UniProtKB/TrEMBL annotation:
Gene: RASA3
Keyword hit for Zinc: yes
Entry-linked SMART domains: BTK, C2, PH, RasGAP
A GO BP entry: negative regulation of Ras protein signal transduction
Keyword Repeat carried by entry: yes
Residue span, Ras-GAP domain: 330-524
Domain of life: Eukaryota
One cellular-component annotation, GO: cytoplasmic side of plasma membrane
Protein name: Ras GTPase-activating protein 3
Region annotation (Disordered) ranges: 802-834
GO molecular function: calcium channel regulator activity; GTPase activator activity; zinc ion binding
Ranges of compositional bias, category Polar residues: 818-834
Coiled-coil positions: none
Keywords on record: Acetylation, GTPase activation, Metal-binding, Phosphoprotein, Repeat, Zinc, Zinc-finger
Length: 834
């Protein structure tokens, strides 16, 4: 979800690795240990939670989290909680990284000291305030000055314990006075519209003398300030919760009698002494925050066209896409946006075929084919992740869930056997698991996505042509990807492929490691399989699988997924699970009588239907066929005074649903929109608010069948080739080229050197693959020209934004540190330009 900014879209995303915590404070009891988990928060809104690690003061989490950020935020925060069975979980400490500081820690493992959590420091949101100073002459001729403080509205206040009933106190404070007034409480909203005015007497001189009056006013006003405190009205005995404050000195009225601005709420300094930084322990994190500024499509045409021609360039090493792989520090950096761009335009198979053929021609030993971390390998990995995720889930998820739930012991290392365990029983348990997973994989060939099969076909043909004497190379070229880089890693770390919500426990993790090793070896078709294992117990266990039927099953599977005349998977009618989880829904009114209350339900979306039930595994209470979904849109918060709500619109009614947080709401809206995008009866207009008390809240129409009053938002396309923003991927490729500009210029020098000199090559140029120096130089020149043109457009946009932006506006409230640092950068840029 992008933020629109005058012809430019801004996308925010974050990828986080939560490593481990260490040296947490001991529990004040005889056990000393804690059961801890970690949450990821945008400001104070929780968007992710790790598993609970029990009985540890140094818990290891090892969990990854990625999300598109659908709103503005000030802090990315991490909280360590201690689970309490009988009371509310207690917070041990937090790490809060300001948005403007995220680049400092980009893609670096960093230990952060946990900080003490204080209710007075936990603030978010902004306030719209207006001040006006006016002269008032009383009936007796005395002049006094009155201050009108108007609280218009607040936005983005935190939801505390599931609710937000805010009110504000407005105080005129000085050295010798303090006068406070209070707004009304606004129920069930974190975006309250107050629009209340409070009057304060600022000065009251004894006699009217204009000169002496102004002398007195100036002296007095400098010492006064307006303080606005936001509170959440609580019914608990502990009192109302502090939400934040702002302080405005009245000398802002010195230039003008009126003043109006937006302010970020700030924490309150109550003078409390926090613990020493080291007292609470530390947390290891790796954070990658990305902000893409994307222009309209025509800006990217030159660079995009140059990239899309890569598959047709001879040799392919002289193409723009291959050049990107050469200059990036890691091939993965280049592979991710390249694959997404080529998928979007339906060019991924020709491109990967071209670079794979080039790599095969450079390979001397068939046993090392596609074994390195080349651009080809990384591009195929990324394609399998994008196109093959549903296939992976459909194939492996039931078996992985059974292994996690049954919890059978499968340890076959005699040294690690526990007391009472039988090596023979454990071997039999493991053999049954391996057999089941091997069978579901080798029988899944008909479900393999077409784009993967087309790539495997090109790999098979290239390998067979290059190594005609090796009859197995046509299989190993494919198995090195489908087994070694696709199925085996998913079995080893199912949480990284969304097969499990979190890391598995140590015993299950050990079982999955043994299964993954065995499946990897079965798929490799190596001639001396027992010798493939370093451990003698694995070699002994593998004797179970030395029968020819296993090798035949692997070859039949590889033949099927790498043949050009295979069955189209689109004809397969087996439902594919797309997303599931708990949400809160409002009764749809299918019964004539009864209250339309809100209930927590387990929702499940497949490519056939959208259902909900009381709990996971229960019979569905309601099933909505995908063809009956006419639109999926956000629901305005004012409808039910509830945040993160959306609506699934059907022919007769709408289903109103509340997600757990803004990230989950966006994910559900996106996937529901995607699967229903091709429905013939999709709506073009909808009602952004609910139908309550006999009318639509948005347009006041009384008929519940009245046509919508707002246009539906543009949805996501329904197929993998188009479910990608091509302009955003081209922008990312531009950013990579721009950041590696020095290496592009070095590569140009290398092309010149190879064209002119036939002697030994300089060492600094030897890392580049340059098969045709002249063609490569021509491509490099076009890339540098295209990147330079886009850089000029970005620079011009930044200059224009700098001129137009007002500090204190709704977009950039006073207290916005990221905007202050942006102002400094632009000032320095302007100085250098002059």
């Amino acid at each position: 979800m992008a933020v629109e900014e005058e012809g430019l879209r801004v996308f925010q995303s974050v990828k986080i690795k939560i490593g481990e915590a260490k040296n947490l404070p001991t529990y004040p009891g005889p056990n000393k240990m804690r059961d801890c988990y970690c949450t990821v928060n945008l400001d104070r809104e929780e968007v992710f939670r790790t598993k609970i690690v029990e009985k540890s003061l140094c818990p290891f989490y090892g969990e990854d989290f990625y999300c598109e950020i659908p709103r503005s935020f000030r802090h990315l925060s991490f909280y360590i909680f201690d689970r309490d069975v009988f009371r509310r979980d207690s917070i041990i400490g937090k790490v809060a990284i300001q948005k403007e500081d995220l680049p400092k820690y980009h893609n670096r493992d960093t230990w952060f000291q946990l900080q003490h959590v204080d209710a007075d420091s936990e603030v978010q949101g902004k306030v719209h305030l207006e001040l006006r100073l006016s002269e008032v002459i009383t009936d007796t001729g005395v002049v006094c000055h009155k201050l009108a403080a108007r609280i218009l509205e607040c936005q983005g206040l935190p939801i505390v314990n599931g609710q937000c009933d805010p009110y504000a106190t407005v105080t005129l404070a000085g050295p010798y006075r303090s006068e406070a007034k209070k707004t009304k409480v606004k129920k069930k909203t974190n975006n309250p519209q107050f629009d209340e005015v409070f009057y304060f007497e600022v000065t009251r001189p004894c006699s009217y003398n204009r000169k002496s009056h102004f002398d007195f006013e100036e002296e007095d006003v400098d010492k006064l300030e307006i303080r606005v405190d936001l509170w959440n009205a609580s019914n608990l005995k502990f009192g109302d919760e502090f939400l934040g404050e702002l302080r405005v000195p009245l000398n802002v009225l010195r230039q003008s009698s009126s003043y109006e601005a937006w302010y970020f709420l700030q924490p309150r300094d109550n003078g409390s002494k926090s613990l020493k930084p080291g007292d609470l322990g530390s947390l290891r994190l790796n954070v990658v925050y990305t902000e893409d500024h994307v222009f309209s499509s025509d800006y990217y045409s030159p660079l995009r066209d140059l990239l899309l021609r890569s598959a047709d360039v001879e040799p392919v090493s002289a193409s723009a896409a291959h050049v990107l792989g050469e200059v990036c520090r890691e091939k993965q950096e280049a592979a991710i946006p390249l694959v997404r761009l080529f998928l979007h335009y339906g060019r991924v198979v020709p491109f990967i075929s071209a670079i794979a053929n080039a790599e095969v021609r450079r390979t001397q030993d068939p046993n090392t084919i596609f074994r390195g971390n080349s651009l080809t390998s990384k591009c195929i990995d990324e394609t399998m992740k994008l196109a093959g995720m549903h296939y992976l889930h459909m194939t492996l998820k039931p078996a992985i869930e059974e292994i996690c739930q049954s919890h059978k012991s499968c340890e076959i290392d005699p040294v690690k056997l526990k007391d009472g365990e039988s090596l023979e029983n454990n071997m039999e348990n493991l053999r049954q698991y391996v057999d089941r997973i091997f069978n579901v994989i080798t029988k899944s060939g008909v479900s393999c996505p077409t784009v993967m099969c087309d790539i495997f076909f090109s790999l098979r043909e290239a390998a067979a042509k290059r190594f005609q004497d090796d009859l197995d190379v046509r299989y190993t070229a494919v198995s090195s990807f489908i087994f070694l880089r696709f199925f085996a890693p998913a079995i080893l770390s199912p949480n990284l492929f969304q097969l499990t919500p979190h890391h598995t426990d140590p015993q299950t993790s050990r079982t999955l490691t043994l299964i993954s090793k065995t499946i990897q070896t079965l798929g490799s078709l190596s001639k001396s399989k027992s010798a493939s294992f370093k451990e003698s117990y694995m070699a002994a266990f593998y004797e179970f699988f030395n029968e020819q039927k296993y090798a035949d099953a692997v070859k039949n599977f590889l033949d099927l997924i790498s043949s050009s005349g295979r069955r189209d998977p689109k004809s397969i009618e087996q439902p594919i699970l797309l997303k599931e989880g708990f949400m809160i829904k409002r009764a749809q009114g299918r019964k004539r009588f009864g209250m339309k209350n809100f209930k927590k339900r387990w929702f499940c979306l497949t490519n056939h239907e959208f259902t909900y039930q009381k709990s996971k595994g229960d019979q569905p209470l309601c099933s909505i066929p995908i063809e009956n979904i006419l639109a999926v849109e956000k629901l305005e918060e004012e409808s039910f005074k509830m945040k993160n709500m959306f609506q699934v619109i059907q022919p007769e009614r709408a289903l109103y649903i509340q997600a757990n947080n803004c990230v989950e709401a966006k994910a559900w809206i996106d996937i529901l929109t995607k699967v229903s995008q091709c429905n013939q009866k999709r709506l073009t207009v909808y009602h952004p608010s609910a139908y309550l008390n006999g009318h639509w809240l948005c347009c006041r129409a009384s008929s519940d069948t009245a046509p919508g009053c707002s246009p539906c938002t543009g949805g996501l396309p329904a197929n993998i080739q188009l479910d990608i923003d091509g302009d955003r991927e081209t922008e990312r490729i531009y950013s990579l080229f721009n950041s590696y500009m020095s290496k592009l210029e070095k590569m140009q020098e290398a092309c010149g050197s190879r064209s002119v000199y036939d002697g030994p090559e300089q060492e600094e140029y030897s890392t580049f693959i340059i098969d045709d120096p002249q063609e490569t130089y021509k491509t490099l020149k076009q890339v540098i020209t295209g990147v330079g043109a886009l850089e000029q457009e970005h620079a011009q946009y930044r200059r224009d934004k700098f001129k137009k932006t007002k500090y204190g506006s709704q977009e950039h409230p006073i207290g916005d540190k990221s905007f202050q640092s942006y102002i400094r950068q632009q000032s320095e840029t302007s100085t250098h330009s002059i």
